[in-house]
Amino acid sequence: MMPGPMGPEARAEAARLSAIFEGLGAQPVDTSILQPADVLLDLYGEDIRARAYVTADPLRGEMMLRPDFTVPVVRAHMDEGGDPARYSYAGEVFRRQETDPARPIEFLQVGFEIFGGEPAQADAEVFATISGALEGLELRPATGDIGILMAAVRGLKTSEARKGALLRHVWRPRRFRALLDRYGARTPLPAHKKALLAAADPFEGAGPALGLRSRREVEARLATLRAEADTRPLSEEEMALVDMILDLRETAPNVLSALRDIAVDMPAIGDAVTGLTRRLDAMSARGIDVDALPFEGSFGRTTLEYYDGFVFGFQSPTRADLPPVATGGRYDALTRHLGRGRAVPAVGGVIRPELAVQIREGRA
Question: Where does L-histidine bind (predicted)?
Answer without folding.
Answer: 68-70, 95, 109, 113, 301, 306-307
